[in-house]
Amino acid sequence: MSEFKLPTEQVELPSKGLLYPETNPLSSGTVEIKYMTAKEEDILTNQSYIKKGIVLDKLLQSLIIDKKINYKDIIVGDKNALLIASRILGYGSTYEFEYNNERQSVELSTLENKPFDESYITKGTNSFDYKLPKTEVNISFKILNGKDENDIDRELEGLKKIDRDASPEMSTRLKYIITAIEGNPDKKSIREFVDNFLLAQDSRALRNYIKLVQPDVDLTFFPIGNDNDATIPIGLNFFWPDAK
Fold it and tell me: Could you tell me the pTM of the whole model?
């Protein structure tokens, strides 16, 4: 069967590769992925992967051609671009889904990467500086990648076992996003700061600032029967509406 060759596509990353070290193949700003096959459909229906919440990670790992790429290094916005490209190549660009009890339809091929100011980025470094507006505390932060997301999920699962009613997702994410307080990278100090000293005003301002500098795909759409925009949901059904 060596005469058969799977077609592939180069996906442009929203980050343009600027947040990765030059030694990382992601720094090229593009990732080559193959078209989906029956093998990937098996991944999408793998109940073990679904229960563990890793099915989309396993899918992209299978589709990425360059096995030197560490999937856990990929920042969230770049992962979104790869998921969208994979969906288009696998099942077409028309995505239909339910939102607010209305059937919605989005053409994925029309989605564009969000513009971001490259002057905020030191090439090859995933690190940003920001002064909290209310307390004027100087912090450093990073854009989360796949490893960070996995670590956050595990921590939240552990916290749920301790207190089933707990819902500390926002503060937990901030503990991973913030990398230094007034130049101090001590993780214990960062966690104490988030829990006890980070004002709600500053927290919101930081999250809004991150949205401005974070490379990503613009996933907003305007739902039928709703005056406000919303975010296109990306989950298992994004690839296969019949998948459960």
Answer: 0.89
